[in-house]
Design brief:
CATH topology of the largest domain: Rossmann fold
Bound molecules: N-carbamoyl-L-aspartate
Strand content: 5-15%
CATH class of the largest domain: Alpha Beta
CATH architecture of the largest domain: 3-Layer(aba) Sandwich
Structural class: alpha/beta
CATH superfamily of the largest domain: Aspartate/ornithine carbamoyltransferase
Number of helices: 13
Number of strands: 11
């Protein structure tokens, strides 16, 4: 029996109107003191910001290796508290944010299911969000609803006590911090061959409902001469909003269902899982789409420098035998998430210069 009580639904006025505005109208609201305050969309990041994040993540990674360095990092934000509101399943994003906070000395609170919050007593989402801001200096949120993180920031920015909101995954829509760590992984992997500019990237799998490939596609506007290959079954093709964005920014992309023909062409292969928890797929949802899997015998076909990525969790789409190949970057990629998220949090709390001073 469900104990859920329907909220008495005292809606805060104006959200629907705000939500339907074009993204360009919404971006200014996420900035304070000419800096990014709320991290909601991948479209917020420009090249300078992305380069800064990569440099800062490197510095934090190096500092955290020594006892002296890690103690310095731990003192940086020991006066701050962060909330992890993760009401959609998560392993990596949750743990990497948690550890990123701990690296910087931040105290963390967590709620991992609405069933353990006063939402079951009928409290509205809006009042729940306001309550977090009474105790915390930052809210990191993962939610199955597209737009939920954005709603949090919209709401708090109208109060006299707004705190930064970081989107840790908003339904099938966006996952901007995953896109940041993917950029960091690509840039690190291509360090000896000129970085991400000029590279060809294949995104494979459920491109329709996979939020990671959507956010990563937006970031391509910041790099020169990148070409994308969208490789998917017909039912999971990339949605039009992303394709229109790429056209607008003159970023070439090719769509195909022939994975093997693309393998030898690209510098990176970004594999994704079929997102069967969301609507919009075929009825049965049990198909594994073997033509879109990367197998051990494909390793002889791909480029010697090709980077194999996956946001994880994986199901069938990358054969476990591939893990041993030095081109398999996904385990490094998940670890990069912790460094990059620490860099992002350090930036939001304005301590990036203190870190950089250690290296000057
Ligand atoms: C992804 C997500 O949750 O969107 N995982 C992650 O955050 N590392 C990808 C997925 O669930 O398939």
């Amino acid at each position: 029996m469900s104990h859920f009580v329907e909220p008495t639904a005292q809606e805060y006025e104006g959200w629907n109107e705000f939500y339907s505005k074009p993204i360009s109208d919404k971006l200014p609201a996420l900035i304070r003191d000419e800096r990014i305050f709320d991290v909601i969309f991948a479209q917020q990041f420009d090249r300078d910001f992305l380069d800064l994040m990569c440099r800062l993540a490197n510095m934090i990674r190096i500092m955290a290796k020594t006892r002296t360095g890690s103690l310095k990092l731990k003192r940086l934000l020991a006066h701050k508290r962060a909330m992890l509101y993760f009401v959609q399943p998560s392993t990596r994003t949750f743990l990497s944010f948690l550890n990123a906070c701990q690296i910087l000395g931040i105290n963390v609170s967590e709620i991992r299911a609405t069933s353990t919050s006063s939402e079951v007593k009928g409290e509205s989402q809006e009042d729940t969000i306001r309550t977090f801001a009474s105790y915390e200096d930052m809210i990191i949120v993962r939610h199955s609803e597209a737009g939920f993180a954005e709603k949090m920031s919209w709401l708090l920015n109208q109060t006299d006590h707004p705190v930064p909101v970081i989107n840790g995954g908003s339904g099938p829509d966006q996952h901007p911090t995953q896109a940041l760590l993917d950029i960091y992984t690509l840039e690190r992997s291509f360090e000896a061959i000129g970085g991400l500019d000029g590279k060809k990237i294949a995104m494979v799998g459920d491109l329709k409902r996979g939020r990671t490939v959507r956010s990563l596609s937006y970031l391509m506007k910041n790099y020169k001469d990148v070409t994308l290959y969208f490789v998917s079954p017909d039912v999971f093709r990339m949605r039009n909003d992303i394709k229109e964005f790429l056209d607008k920014h003159a970023i070439p992309f090719h769509e195909t269902d022939d994975f093997e023909s693309v393998m030898p062409l690209v510098d990176a292969i970004y594999m994704t899982r079929i997102q069967s928890e969301y609507p919009g797929g075929p009825e049965t949802g049990t198909e594994t789409y073997p033509r879109f899997h990367l197998r051990n015998d494909h390793l002889s076909v791909i480029n010697p420098h090709c980077v194999i990525m996956h946001p994880l969790p994986r199901r069938y789409e990358i054969e476990v035998a591939v893990d041993k190949d030095p081109r398999a970057a996904y385990w490094r990629q998940e670890r990069n998430g912790m460094w990059l998220r620490a860099a992002l949090i350090a930036y939001v709390f304005k301590v990036e210069d203190v870190i950089a001073k250690e290296f000057s």
